[in-house]
Amino acid sequence: MRSAIRRVFGVFLAITCAGCSGPSRGEEAHRDLAADVAGAEVVFSNRLKREADVDWAAEEVQEEVSRLLRAYAAYANVNHGDSLSGVYLMRRADLLQGRGDAEKAVSQWLDVVEGYPRTGFAPEAMFRIGFVRETALRDTVGALKAYGQLVTSFPESPWSEQAKMASTALTFSEKELLRSLGSGL
Q: Model's pTM, two decimal places?
């Protein structure tokens, strides 16, 4: 009986002490990735504070933006589902749009909608998809589809009301109108 108690106590002690050994590899990786994001954000934020009109084509700016894009993606890939991952993916899409990569920004926002459907990020991302399709990509049909999906999927969201207003202001060229009529048949 005594040896059984010792064994149980020994197992209990081993389990308890295992938790005292410091951070796990996962926790260290999480902290390292968060530190990478924070460092890249500080560098780029300082640039934005120094320069009122950032030259996105400048090699130095491109390097800083690329570093930040990689840091956001790395964090989100390792910490999928983490609340900060959604924030970082939204920021990543904003950066992509800012440097003129509208298609990649739309793709990133689609990832947010699919990966975080029950958060406030999803309706905002859907609205931004519509907005960028409308303004940067000149895809009125695509914008209308995104706005319509937002209204249908997230009717209670404030972004839904914005989408309704934006869709009423859309205008179609004759070519776009024919294309939209043709795709609906």
A: 0.77
